[in-house]
Structures are given as C-alpha cells and as structure tokens.
Amino acid sequence: MTRWLTPEHINELSADPKQCSQMDMPLQLDLSKPYVPEDYTQLYYTPVYASLSREQRLHYNQLSALRINEYIMMLEADLIERLLPPLLHHPQVAGDKALLLALNTMMHEEQRHFRGFAALNRACRPDLYPPGADRFFSVLPWWTQAMFGVVGLLSAHLPFALWFLMAMEESSKTLAKDMVVRPATETLGVLDQAFVRVHHEHLKDETRHLHIDAILIERCLERRWETANAWLFKRMLVGVVRPTRGGSGVKVIHQLVRDLPELACRQDEMVDALLALRNNRAFQVSLFNRRIMPTAFRVFDRCHALANLGEEMAGYDRR
Ligand SMILES: [Fe+2]
Ligand SMILES: [Fe+2]
C-alpha cells in the first residue's frame, strides 16, 4: 500500500455493513482451547515457558489473551479519545468535510470495538470482569498515564502519538490475520473459534482506520516539528517495550498463580523471567517489526527524524 484511500472512499466503505465489524455476536467460548498464538504471549520468550505443563501454558495463554484485548481497548479508549478530538480542529483537517466524517465514524467504531472486546473478556472470565468493570490487567502504569496526558495536551500541535496509533492498529490487524491463517498453535492445539471470530471482525474496520492514520500523519505531523515529534514518540516507546513490576504482564502471572496455586512456588521465577524481557532481543523484535506493521514501517522510513528509531524500537530496520 503506497497510496491511501481518499476520505470519500473510506466513507463509502464504512457505509457498507459488509465492510464493517460486527462486534456484538453471541459468544460461546471453549475453555479447553487457546485464545491467541503462543508467540503473542510474553512468557513464550522466556525459558520458563517450556517448563510449564500443557494445562499451565493453556491457562497462561487464555489470561494473556484477555490482557491483549485490554491493550487494544486501551488504544481504542484512552489513546484515541485524547489524540483524535483535538485534530478535528487542525487547519489541515477542519475544512475537509469528508475527512471529518471519516474521523467521527472511526471514533464511534472504536467505541463499538471497546464494548465488543469487553464483552468477549467478560464471556471468558465473568469473575474478573463483573458488570461495569471492563479492565482487570490494564490499569495504566504511571508512565503510560503521564504519556497519555501529554498526548492530550499536545495533540493539536505535536500529534506524535499518531505514529504509535498507526503501528498498533496495524499490529492488531496482523494478529487477526495470523489467527485466521494459522489457527493451530505450536503446542496447545487449535485456537478457540469464537475468539478468532471477534478479532477477525475487528480487522474490517481497522483496515480503513490504517488509511485514516496515514492521512492524518501526512497532514498533521508538520515537517518543521518533526524532530520534536520524533523525540516524544521515542519517549513514549520506553514505557511500552519494558515490562515493569507494576505492569499488566506481571498481573497476568499473579492471576495465573491465583488460578493455579501449585505455581505459587514459581511465581518469583516467572516474574523475574518476564522483567528480563526488556533485554531479550527476540521479544523486543516481536513487539514492533516489519512483518506485523509493514505500512507503518514504510511511513517511518520516509521520516528523516526517525532515522535512528531502532535505538528504542529493536525491530525497526531502517530502509
Ligand atoms: Fe479498534
Ligand atoms: Fe482502529
């Protein structure tokens, strides 16, 4: 993809129900099945993973999948609600009625996605997500909270988080494709089909969102502020690529131990292995790489100020 769809074309597509995500489907989960490919979970990249029993790995996979859904929900709510509304008034956006419509539609679609993923998590674990509680693992750490606050304050002039949004929307698209194309996991059998269906539906809207992100980057990330935007973007990544003791990955391990108390004696070992991922190249590359976000990487390639992005984003291979 080198040229973006026009806002008019995006609006035509989003008016066609066949092109839109249906996120409110009935959910019949099979608790004996894994929910996501194993290489999308954190402990997979540690030596601990292979030493867990199949039942323990399966349980970890299911909890990790809930965390992944919450992560997508965090982008759809916390990030988008701070980043996009100020851009409706940007000089390069405010006069373009078709783009304004596309942006408003996108924000509504993200609210629907949020509700869809919240319902999926509740169907999987009603005990962790009682009515009204949509987040269990992803109560935001201080760094992310502070960064999202900065995004909201600066978005109108320095919308650096558009690069992050584009990369994450594209990676959620690739996750959905991976789940459909390779439904068999490495060691846990076939993915749960209800889980796959929700992610596959999500992909439909996200395909259009990627074009909106690219248009906004072209129009709103001004060349004269490129260096400042790039500096802020790199600071934002620091909190994303480093697992912390207070972060959602450690919370998944704590829940795993609550659910499977026989693992209590291995909790510290699992947490230490998880924290060590900050220096694990295979894990770091798995977060951001050209396979899962090819379009976003091509956008990064064209930006002079992101030439040394590989210092913060291990998987970025400048081309
Ligand atoms: Fe979404
Ligand atoms: Fe999206």
Automatic annotation (TrEMBL):
Entry annotated with the keyword Ion transport: no
Report TM segments: 142-165
Transmembrane helix recorded as keyword: yes
Domain of life according to the entry: Bacteria
Mind listing the UniProt keywords for this protein, alphabetically? Answer: Membrane, Transmembrane, Transmembrane helix
Protein name, as recorded = p-aminobenzoate N-oxygenase AurF
Question: What is the species of this protein?
Answer: Rhodoferax lithotrophicus
